Amino acid sequence: PIKSSAASDVYKRQKIVKEISYTPDQVEMMKKLYPYVRDKRNFNKVIDILFSNAYKDEMRKFIEEYHQNNK
């Protein structure tokens, strides 16, 4: 049950982000959602939605900084 719950968590985040068509808005939504994601290891599946590698890199940098600041 825990795995399916975590998978469901990531799926829900993907669905929310896909509803937004403008990539910079997707990135902002991901940044707001990330602290509430239970399955942070699989959040890359949400990041993969992004069209541009530059935006993917921005999200990865945000996540790295988030973990550095929230140890």
The pLDDT mean sits at 87
Largest sheet: none
Instruction: Give the topology string: H per helix, E per strand.
Output: HHHH
Rg, nearest Å:
12 Å
Rounded to the nearest angstrom, the distance between the terminal CA atoms is: 27 Å
Percent range for β-strand residues = under 5%
The low-confidence parts are none
Structural class: mainly alpha
Helix content: 55-70%
Count of DSSP-assigned helices: 4
What is the strand tally?
A: 0
The global form is: globular
Q: Which labels suit this protein?
A:
71 residues, single chain, 69% helix, mainly alpha, 0% strand, globular
Walk me through the structure.
The chain has 71 residues and is mainly α. The protein is built from four helices and no strands. The protein has helices spanning 2-18, 23-33, 44-47, 53-69. It is globular, with a radius of gyration of 12 Å.
Short note summarizing the structure:
This protein is mostly helical. The protein has helices at residues 2-18, 23-33, 44-47, 53-69.
